Amino acid sequence: MFHPHRMWAAWPAWMAGRGGHRGRDPFDMDGRGRGGFGDGGRGFGRAGRVFGPGDLRLVLLALIAERPSSGYELIKELEQRFGGVYAPSPGSVYPTLTLLEEQGHIRAAGMEGAKRSFEITGEGRAFLQENRPMVDAVLNRMNITAQSMSGRAMPGSVHQAMHTLRAALAFHSRGWDEAETRRVLDVLEKAARDISGG
């Protein structure tokens, strides 16, 4: 028998934000769902990995070289650059900052409230300079990916409509006999076909 809640298991991964870390469920109203990227992020899905191994470390170091930042500020900066569609998870950012600090590439620059800020060291700047071609390549890939992903951002009105649809299914009060199950299935499948253009 068809169960409407199971249709979400087949929802496109880049919309559902599934994976090993944080992801944005299309129905998560504050954008703080669970799922994510191989690099640990929310919003795009496992099929569209944003950062390769070691890339996030270079990106964070390059951003800190621009101005001292806390982990929270770095997450928000990347989220802004990706148009709100993607942000690295704290579970990937903070361990990376710890690694950079242990490597001597960044150091604590003070506290902003409860947030610890970091600044780049001379050794960190030398590392960026020595690896400039690699750093530039990573940043260029990130910018290209951000431009592509920004075009996939869901309009707020559509986001609200999807939330309403989920509520309608969750609080369905007619019962799920065979006829009603088929009726709802037909409605959902027709909507999916119409949205995807046939």
UniProtKB/TrEMBL annotation:
Q: Which SUPFAM superfamilies match?
A: Winged helix' DNA-binding domain
Looking up InterPro entries in the UniProt record yields: Tscrpt_reg_PadR_N (IPR005149), WH-like_DNA-bd_sf (IPR036388), WH_DNA-bd_sf (IPR036390)
Superkingdom of the organism of origin: Bacteria
Domain Transcription regulator PadR N-terminal: residue ranges: 60-130
One Pfam family of this protein, by short name?
PadR
**PANTHER family recorded for this chain?**
TRANSCRIPTIONAL REGULATOR YQJI (PTHR43252:SF7)
Protein name as catalogued:
PadR family transcriptional regulator
**Lineage, uppermost ranks:** Bacteria, Pseudomonadati, Pseudomonadota, Betaproteobacteria, Burkholderiales
